[in-house]
Design a protein that fits this description.
- The structure holds two protein chains of two kinds.
- Chain A is mainly beta.
- Chain A is built from one helix and 23 strands.
- Chain A is 4% helix and 47% strand.
- In chain A, strands 17-16-15-23-19-20-21-22-18 form a nine-stranded mixed beta sheet, with helices on one face. Chain A has a seven-stranded antiparallel beta sheet with strand order 10-9-13-12-11-8-14, with no helix packed on it.
- Chain B is built from four helices and 18 strands.
- In chain B, the strands form four sheets. Chain B has a five-stranded mixed beta sheet. In chain B, strands 3, 4, 7, 8 and 9 form a five-stranded antiparallel beta sheet that branches.
- Chain B is elongated and about 70 Å long.
- Classes of the chains: A mainly beta, B mainly beta.
- At the A-B interface, loops of A face strand 15, strand 17 and strand 18 of B.
Chain lengths: 267, 279
């Protein structure tokens, strides 16, 4: 990790599914616990493909690292953008916990708050992405966020599809490197950023996973965005979703530094 | 409660064991007639099972497990010679209630006179009731007096649209966990599962429509109550939807899309509670 890169060595992680905890970092080790999906666990250490937790070990691919965020951000005027600061935000058809499920947006997902309804116990947010209304969600899961443009000189993003990494260069000097996941094969070439969106919906294999996909950057016929539904960045898997997938914190960092017409080089 | 309001004749009858009798008649060569004391002289068996009421919603779910002692219906049926058209049994009780069973299901039943080591209470059907493990409670009538073998099924609830087989489904329910809690407190969620005819093979809980997580339970035979418990730490204040589902050894898994029907299988739908977590 280069010095100016976003710090994603998290102290906490979110269980991406049912989390199996082992007594040692091996799939053949004794299972000592199982935790519900979206449980928040402290991460003590990273050991190759494993995280050491407070009471055992879990596969790295089963946990999404969580960014510690300031939860005391004052609520801006409507409408405003917000990200999921907790493990997950549940979006429902109306303001009730037993209302039909619309979406489950994981940590780092982004949506626009277009209305709010203070309740006796909880405030509800009405959410939309760039284009459409989504539903209602408990405000406690959301933190206001805005991508602050960060001026850089002669910035380029290099995407290495073989080694599954990307690198941001300023004046030909690397300033950030991060692992990626591919949604499909990318043709080598030079592209320009032609559109950016705070939040979009993708058609993934599980309908509830494709909402609030944050910080999309479109280049050529491709797109890059944050993915909160896996932690397989840097591996040779291909998962549905954005063509180039990075951790949400990385996506936001890039979004702030890659204005339209920036150069993206795919190798 | 509802059926007693609508059908007052189903109110508990007062039975006197000195005058009470039990008979098997209809399509048999010679009817069997037994007094209460005759019944006490017969070989007794014990069966442990839970009875599930078909008509209750989850928040008032009526399910009760007990050890029932009585005379096996197979033994009683061996005492009569059935005629060829004896395909079903219509059970009559002292309240005028009737229900019907196939002879195969009747053979699996017990004419019970004791519950958990004590004589049946009037509310539980004194002096004798039928117990058929695996079927809904409306197939195990209290205050049984007469069984008539026939070629046509009939019955009080059956004639009103309830299922003729009355096989109790595989279900799971949450009995505790929905009270107000503080964030980061451990919430104990517990409940039971039940399957009428197949062993419960899995119980799974989902928080806010997340992936289903299996929970631990002590395996039990079909028609037994299975208790389960799990712990969960809510990450934030808010309202959480907690659902449970069960699977059985036949491969059946309760489905998300299950819809409560008016009559049979009222508990097929997934049980859901809301856990309120305070700031």
């Amino acid at each position: 990790m280069l010095p100016s890169a976003p710090q994603i060595d998290a102290l906490y992680g979110r269980a991406l599914s049912v989390l199996t905890v082992y007594d040692s970092p091996s799939p053949s080790a004794v299972v000592i616990n199982r935790l519900f999906p979206d449980s928040v666990v402290p991460i003590i250490d990273t050991l190759s493909d494993w995280y050491q937790l407070a009471n055992g070990y879990a596969k790295r691919s089963d946990i999404q690292p969580m960014m510690l965020t300031n939860h005391t951000v004052p609520t801006p005027q409507l409408p405003f953008w917000a990200e999921v600061g907790g493990a997950v935000a549940i979006v429902r058809g109306w303001c009730a916990a037993d209302a039909p499920l619309v979406a489950r947006i994981g940590h780092g997902g982004v949506a626009q708050v277009v209305d709010m309804l203070p309740g006796e116990q909880h405030t509800w947010y009405a959410l939309a992405d760039e284009d459409t209304f989504l539903g209602w969600s408990s405000a406690s899961a959301w933190i206001p966020v805005e991508a602050a443009p960060f001026e850089m000189d002669s910035v380029q993003l290099h995407i290495d599809t073989v080694n599954r990494t990307l690198q941001l260069l300023e004046n030909h000097q690397p300033v950030m490197r991060a692992p990626i996941m591919l949604g499909r094969g990318l043709a080598a070439g030079n592209y320009a950023v032609h559109r950016r969106k705070h939040s979009v919906k993708y058609s993934l294999d599980d309908a509830s996973k494709g909402y609030g996909v944050p910080w999309r950057i479109d280049f050529g016929e491709y797109s890059l965005a944050g993915a909160y539904w896996h932690n397989d960045f840097g591996t040779d898997k291909i998962l549905p979703g954005p063509d180039v997938q990075v951790a949400p914190a990385v996506a936001r960092w890039l979004y702030e530094r890659l204005p339209e017409n920036s150069l993206i080089v795919v190798r | 409660m509802i059926y007693q309001d609508i059908y007052p004749r189903l109110r508990n009858p007062q039975c006197d064991c000195s005058t009470w009798s039990f008979s098997i008649g209809g399509s048999v060569q010679h009817p069997l007639i037994l007094s209460y004391s005759d019944l006490l002289q017969m070989p007794m068996v014990e069966v442990t099972c839970a009875l599930l009421c078909a008509g209750n919603p989850y928040d008032e779910l009526a399910v009760e497990q007990a050890v029932w002692r009585g005379v096996a219906m197979a033994t009683l049926l061996q005492s009569v010679t059935r005629q060829p058209d004896a395909l079903f049994a219509v059970i009559h009780n002292a309240a005028g209630y009737t229900t019907s069973l196939s002879l195969d299901w009747l053979n699996r039943g017990v004419l019970a006179i004791e519950q958990d080591g004590n004589p049946l209470t009037p509310e539980q059907g004194y002096p004798a009731r039928l117990i058929v493990p695996g079927l809904y409670g409306y197939k195990s009538p209290r205050w049984v007096e007469r069984i008539e073998l026939t070629n046509t099924p009939s019955g009080f609830w059956e004639s009103r649209g309830w299922d003729g087989d009355g096989i109790a489904p595989t279900i799971a329910a949450i009995s505790a966990g929905g009270v107000h809690r503080s964030a980061e407190d451990v919430v104990t969620i517990e409940g039971f599962a039940y399957s009428g005819t197949a062993r419960v093979s899995a119980i799974e809980v989902s928080i806010d429509h997340s992936d289903w997580m299996p929970v631990d339970f002590v395996p039990a035979p079909p028609a037994h109550l299975v208790r389960w418990q799990t712990e969960w730490t809510p990450p934030l204040a808010g309202e959480y939807s907690v659902r449970v589902r069960a699977a059985d050894a036949s491969g059946y898994v309760q489905q998300d899309s299950a819809v409560q029907s008016l009559f049979q299988s009222a508990q097929d739908a997934l049980h859901n509670i809301i856990v309120h977590v305070m700031e």
